[in-house]
Amino acid sequence: MMKPLVALITLLYTILLIYWMFIGFGRSQHLSGGYHYNLVPLKTIKMYMEYADKFNVRNWLVNVVGNVAVFVPFGITLPYIFRCRLLSMLMITVMGLVILESLQLTLRRGTFDVDDVLLNTLGVMVGFFIYRFGGLNGQRRRKRNVQSDSF
């Protein structure tokens, strides 16, 4: 009963994130100018760190901390729903993020930034370690121990 509920919540959360990536936060289609992208790993992150005092706090939090935080739930729920290991989950996550970032670029609803992929992936990894060393996985381990003790 718990797994279908977690899957439904994860699906709804995924839809919300896609909305945020393509429509939310005042995004509009960039019709003028060229495509905007960053293919240099850590370039944007480094810029945010070096010039942190030049950005308002909200911008910094959304672009650095937010890109990590919004993907933590996937690291918690995906291994629970699909019983996947870290490496396979990361491969699927990175492929999905590259596709979404590419869609943002081609639809001109944002930019392709390799650092977003890195930060989002870091969020998934943080969530996975929360899952692995507590969270839902811990509940399953306790449940197994109770079942084995009852035999």
UniProtKB/TrEMBL annotation:
Stored Pfam families: VanZ (PF04892)
InterPro entries: Teicoplanin_resist-assoc (IPR053150), VanZ-like (IPR006976)
Keywords (A to Z) from UniProt: Membrane, Transmembrane, Transmembrane helix
Transmembrane region(s): 60-81, 86-105, 117-134
Every VanZ-like domain range: 11-133
Protein name in the entry: VanZ family protein
Originating organism: Paenibacillus sepulcri
